[in-house]
Design brief:
5 helices, two-stranded antiparallel sheet, 157 residues, alpha+beta
């Protein structure tokens, strides 16, 4: 068996034009995130972490800004990445992710996020860890201009 690790990062600015989606969960917040798909920074970071671990480039390469992916749920993209990994013989071991935002607070939503992600990846919720942090009002997330997420994924073959 061979163990591989990948890292993913994503950030999007807030907009008044959308709902806020994180980990496939609609968050009760007056602003959403600007982006081509649903702008789910958490799921995007996880996608890139998994693709990186598999040595399979990045989310933009596989799901470019074309009409087919406009406003698509990032959970669907995650399902596609799980299929890509499976075809190469990879098995997901774990995911550790952090949402970086001054607001909103995510603690009430983490359980549902884990369930959505686990279902999409065909793994157990115990293989996923999601954390939230602020930047103590520093930078774009600290000024509540947007949200960032960072994820690491372990896979084995």
């Amino acid at each position: 068996m061979s163990f591989r690790v990948g890292i993913g990062f994503d950030a999007h600015r807030f907009t008044k034009q959308r709902k806020l989606i994180l980990g496939g969960v609609e968050i009760d917040y007056p602003l959403g995130l600007e982006g081509w798909s649903d702008a789910d920074v958490l799921t995007h970071a996880i996608c890139d972490a998994l693709l990186g671990a598999g040595g399979m480039d990045d989310i933009g390469t596989h799901f470019p800004n074309i009409k087919k992916y406009k406003d698509i749920s990032s959970i669907i993209l995650l399902e596609e990445i799980e299929k890509m990994l499976s075809r190469k013989g990879f098995h997901i071991c774990n995911i550790d992710a952090i949402i970086i935002a001054q607001e909103p607070k995510i603690s009430l939503y983490k359980k549902d996020m884990k369930e959505n992600i686990a279902c999409a990846l065909k793994i157990k919720t115990g293989q996923i860890n999601i954390k939230g942090t602020t930047t103590d009002k520093m930078g774009f997330t600290g000024r509540s201009e947007g949200i960032a997420a960072l994820a690491i994924a372990g896979i084995e073959v």
